[in-house]
């Protein structure tokens, strides 16, 4: 007498099967959102990855890693129970579904770029990425055939799953839209006569700007060059400048003028002191980290755009969005943040190195000066103006004496 077949789904496997379906819906909806943002950025060349995108990416990785042992257990036990069955078409389709699930899982692992793991680059990474994107579609189609020729799933259940998927997608799109609307800042200039513009109602703290050690973690070579540069020694750590700005403040007070007119200097020389509201304070000292920061990494890389060619720090400043847990006090969470950055570095690259940072106008926002009447109580006067001199020179590629475009522009030579 033939031994009866085992049920292909035990009570435990049945519950795991439902869990895997819900997990797949979450991963598919989240993955679709991530892929859509990546494609949209490729088409529009715009930065669309915000805080919500980073959290979606982190949750996608976390859910995928957590569900991995459950998938493995389900496949092995389901295969053990179903292999003796005579319906070989269903068995073979089940094997195909399991194979696709394995490819999706392993491709996701390879795309993460964990430290000390093999790193895919170029064509191999692109192929792996598209396997991870397209194979879930094939998995759904094969699974449907697997159920159709085995134990059919009710049409109403398919409709329920599709509706659930649609609702999740709409929620994700809605949150992304609300974030994009909220993230659009309205800039104001609260530091006149300095022309620095910041988002209205923004609060910038010292901890937001004093992150040179964080940058140095990956960019040691640039950090070493900056350490001995004029940009680093532009603030109160430069005794000549410190004397100049202090004398300016004293002269303004003596002449019954507004001492805040000295902010004219700070937009370019003391961005950390100015933006944190410490430049006008009598309490700040030369030896504080803020006074020694100079024009540091984040001071330049937070510039979003240049407001014309007026100089006098005529730039729009808004802090870039960091990856989740970037500055957590927990070492494990900081490690996770680093893995997120390594796995998806495009957001970091495009947030911290915009086209404006590679333009001559970027340098001109500070290397072109006029002295306003509010500072000298006399009239408008032109100060040093390296930007116009460069623009009119033969090496700019723009002036009348230019007969060719230089191999390197201004920023590539000086930075």
Structure write-up:
The structure is a single chain. With 415 residues, the chain is mainly α. The protein folds into two domains: 173 residues; 210 residues, no CATH class. Helices cover 58% and strands 5% of the residues. It is built from 19 helices and six strands. The strands form three sheets. The chain has a two-stranded antiparallel ribbon. α1 crosses α5. The radius of gyration is 29 Å and the shape is elongated.
Care to give the gist of this entry?
The protein is 58% helix and 5% strand.
- Specify the number of helices: 19
Rg, Å, rounded: 29 Å
Which runs of at least 5 residues are low in confidence (pLDDT < 50)? none
Measured by DSSP, the beta-strand proportion falls in: under 5%
Largest sheet composition: 2 strands, antiparallel
Would you report the number of β strands? 6
Number of individual domains: 2
- Class inferred from helices and paired strands: mainly alpha
Which percent range fits the helix content? 55-70%
Quote the average pLDDT: 86
Shape: elongated
Distance between the termini: 84 Å
Strand order of the largest sheet: 1-2
Q: Tell me the series of helices and strands, N- to C-terminal.
A: HHHHHEEHHHHHHHHEEHHHEHEHH
């Amino acid at each position: 007498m033939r031994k009866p077949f085992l049920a292909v789904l035990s009570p435990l496997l049945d519950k795991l099967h439902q869990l895997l379906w819900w997990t797949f819906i979450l991963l598919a909806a989240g993955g679709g959102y991530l892929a859509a943002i990546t494609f949209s950025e490729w088409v529009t060349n715009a930065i669309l990855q915000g805080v919500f995108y980073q959290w979606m990416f982190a949750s996608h990785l976390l859910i995928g890693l957590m569900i991995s042992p459950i998938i493995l257990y389900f496949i092995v036990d389901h295969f053990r129970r179903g292999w003796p069955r005579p319906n070989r078409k269903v068995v073979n389709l089940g094997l195909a579904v399991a194979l696709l699930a394995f490819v999706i899982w392993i491709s996701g692992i390879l795309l993460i770029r964990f430290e000390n793991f093999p790193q895919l680059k170029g064509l191999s990474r692109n192929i792996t990425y598209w396997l991870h994107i397209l194979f879930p579609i094939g998995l759904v189609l094969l699974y449907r055939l697997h159920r159709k020729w085995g134990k059919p799933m009710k049409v109403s259940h398919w409709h329920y799953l599709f509706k659930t998927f649609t609702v999740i997608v709409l929620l994700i799109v809605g949150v992304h839209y609300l974030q994009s609307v909220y993230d659009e800042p309205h800039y104001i200039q609260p530091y006149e006569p300095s022309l620095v513009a910041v988002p209205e109602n923004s609060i910038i703290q010292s901890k937001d700007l004093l992150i040179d050690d964080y940058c140095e973690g990956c960019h040691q070579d640039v950090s070493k060059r900056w350490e001995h540069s004029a940009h680093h020694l532009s603030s109160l750590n430069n005794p000549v400048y410190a004397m100049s700005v202090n004398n300016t403040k004293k002269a303004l007070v003596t002449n019954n003028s507004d001492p805040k007119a000295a902010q004219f200097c700070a937009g370019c020389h003391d961005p950390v002191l100015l933006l944190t509201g410490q430049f006008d304070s009598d309490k700040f000292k030369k030896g504080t980290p803020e006074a020694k920061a100079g024009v540091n990494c984040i001071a330049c890389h937070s510039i979003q755009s240049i407001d014309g060619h007026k100089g006098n720090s005529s730039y729009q400043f808004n802090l870039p969005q960091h990856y989740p847990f970037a500055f957590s006090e927990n070492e494990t969470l900081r490690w996770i943040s680093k893995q997120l950055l390594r796995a998806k570095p495009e957001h970091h690259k495009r947030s911290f190195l915009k086209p404006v940072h590679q333009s001559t106008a970027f340098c001109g926002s500070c290397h072109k000066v006029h002295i306003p009447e509010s500072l000298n109580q006399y009239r408008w006067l032109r100060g040093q103006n390296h930007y116009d001199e460069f623009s009119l020179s033969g090496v700019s590629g723009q002036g009348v004496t230019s007969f060719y475009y230089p191999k390197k522009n201004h920023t590539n030579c000086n930075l």
